[in-house]
Amino acid sequence: MSGNGDIPSRKISNRRGFIREEQNERNVEHDHSNRGHRHLLADIFAQGRRHIQSRRRSQDIEEISKPTGTFGNDDEEEEEDEFNEADFCWVWEEECKSNDVVFQNNNSEVYFHPDYSCGTAAVRGKNQFQEGEEHYWEIKLSSAVYGTDMMVGVGCDGMDLNKYKSQFCSIIGKESNSWGISYFGTVHHNGKTREFTKKFERGSVIGCHLDLWKGTLSFYKNGEPLGIAFEGLLGKKLYPMISSTAARTKMKLVCSYKINFSLQYLCCKEISKNISSSSEALADLPLPSGLKRYLGFRMDWVFRLHKLQPSSSGMGPSRKRVKRKDDQIEQRLLMNELMQNVKLDNY
């Protein structure tokens, strides 16, 4: 009985073994199929990566000749503004620049040392300044500010812009034929340096006012006056200049204005000294609207240049300045009454 009783149990065990073998075969087939899918997906992703890398390599090859990008973060790259040379009294001169300088954005922006730097590069403006003229221009430090020096200033005709191409130096002001301000806040002339203001940073707008009636050069930072830096500039053939020793740095010409020293200039200068802002000055002046538009379009920089400055104590205008402003207000009121009477007579 015991032997016969073992037969069904063997059949059951054999059947279970067969079922397990079938399950194992199915699992193996399933593993093979999953492995096949994984290999297929891996091949697809690998092909995609190779395609993307090849596209990037081709784009890099195309952009080798383009001097784009700045030292530091490229996400701060500015949008290109429309540049109309007719709106500027001077622009940069293509033939008057160091070899390691590239012009961008319709020649409004100067790109120094596009690849690497091994010295000092500089560029000069197109037009020579004439005596009896008032000049004002602004330069924006549109990239990172670093290195031995980055400078703004003026230089004489015949200055060799490639003289220090293999040397890092403060080229504007290194000799007697140039005058400049450094991003460190120092001013330079004839190899001498002195402290003048605080250090400039990326995005700073440096204003330059060259008065060729008095022979002075003044500087501004972001619209605020820094004072007169140099005197005795009459009788010299001067041009605007900028320079940099740092690789992949940029400076942008924001504006350039000029006007002859005249009664019109003096009137605008005196008005701006007694009124806090150009918009207030133009709005309150008892003048025809057409003349106001002309002053706003042609002379706005003069109003901004000579706007009313606070006293040294930081408590606003001095008593003398306030009294002068009160006198000006009274004169404007009288002028308004006079013009109203003239209008009534015309009716």
TrEMBL record:
Keyword check for Cytoplasm, yes or no.
yes
Ranges annotated as biased composition (Basic and acidic residues): 18-34
Q: Where is this region: Disordered?
A: 1-39, 52-78
Q: Does the keyword Aminoacyl-tRNA synthetase apply?
A: no
- Provide this UniProt record's keywords sorted from A to Z: Cytoplasm, Nucleus, Ubl conjugation pathway
Show the SMART domains listed in the entry: SPRY (SM00449)
Primary residence: cytoplasm
Location(s), subcellular = Cytoplasm; Nucleus
What are its GO cellular component terms?
cytoplasm; nucleus; SCF ubiquitin ligase complex
Matching InterPro entries: B30.2/SPRY (IPR001870), B30.2/SPRY_sf (IPR043136), ConA-like_dom_sf (IPR013320), FBXO45-Fsn/SPSB_families (IPR050672), SOCS_box (IPR001496), SOCS_box-like_dom_sf (IPR036036), SPRY_dom (IPR003877), SPRY_SPSB3 (IPR035754)
- Return the Pfam families for the record: SPRY (PF00622)
The organism's superkingdom is given as Eukaryota
Q: Enumerate the Gene Ontology biological process terms.
A: intracellular signal transduction; proteasome-mediated ubiquitin-dependent protein catabolic process
For the B30.2/SPRY domain, which residue ranges apply? 70-266
Family, similarity comment: Belongs to the SPSB family.
What is this protein called in UniProt? SPRY domain-containing SOCS box protein 3
The protein's organism comes out as Hydra vulgaris (Hydra)
* Gene name of the encoded protein: SPSB3
